[in-house]
Amino acid sequence: MSGSFLYFAYGSNLSSKRIHINNPTATRKCIGMLKGFRLDFNNWSKRWGGHCATIVPDLNEDVWGAVWEINSCNMPDLDRQEGVERNIYKVLDVTVKTDTNEELLCRSYQLCSLPDNRIPFEQRLPSKIYLGTILQGANECGLPEHYIKKLMSIDHNSFDGPVNLNQND
Question: Which residues bind substrate (predicted)?
């Protein structure tokens, strides 16, 4: 494989420390917004001690994240990290609008098992450490202040670690 691809990260991979564990060629290109989706949580993660982030179609919402440029040699590593072969996440091609109004076609990931709105959000909370990793990455990337405030308002289940970021679950 040669070349590179663009990856839209909205969860723990907002953090450069986190993404570089499995994708050492990743370079943050910009930030961007995915229109018509909302950030939500589902699927319990042993690694994180809480539920994982996903994007869910919602015409009234937007998700902000980081656009990473990654060498194509790392695509299998990113897929493995996201559990594609284990049917945890699936690949989703999305169009992201950058903060300079450029539209970029990016690879992203969506949980195979989307949240069921009949199950209260309180039963699918992220852990404190996972949400903290997302917030740290959001600040590091320079996501808009209104979006960071929205992330800060998300409830968590109080689990604060430890976690093994190299573990696959």
Answer: 7-12, 130
